[in-house]
Amino acid sequence: MSKKTRLRFDEVACDILESNDFQALKMEIHHGTSRYDHLVRVAKMTYRITKYTSRYNRDYTRAALLHDFYYDYEMDDMIWFGVFDYRRHPRISAERADVHFDLNKRQKNMIESHMFPFPGRVPRNYGSLVLMMVDKIVATYEVGRWGVMRVTRIAAMKTAKSTQNGVKKAVKGTRNGAKKVAIKARNTKNRVKNSKVMQKRAVRKAQKLSEIEKKGEK
Known about the structure:
single chain, mainly alpha, Hypothetical protein af1432, two-stranded antiparallel sheet, rod-shaped
């Protein structure tokens, strides 16, 4: 493709990106992100690599954008003893992409072989090799980022919980301290009150003794 006729990414992929079926992939979780974001990320990297290295840049970019064009409900019967069936989801994606966007042989091989070297189709063109490598690079980046974000989130939650517990203990300690001060104040007040009562009794007793002594002298 000559420089004059070279298309921008959005010109190559606009009809796919605006498709309702493709937009629905925003709700599908994939490598800790949405499948829509994963596909766009892979397609953009494929576009940049093949932009100046192949005249089939448009075909390669569009195939990269459709290489995981499937939905989670279709994967329920693809788990064998906890192991993902890597042969079927590329075929399902290729079939759906062909129905909606009319793939050629190069694009079908790209989608069907993007999981190589796992069992399945073998890459047979330059675009297939590029997609195979780019998909794994992007997946590694996304899973790693998701892991870091998850660890960071857990650490933040633990820190927040620890801080909350510390605040609760401080508040509880303050309340207990206030209660102790109130009890001490009440006890002091009672002691003062009792002291006054005792003083009054002593005065009365002294007055009675004085009166008795006066009567005895008479």
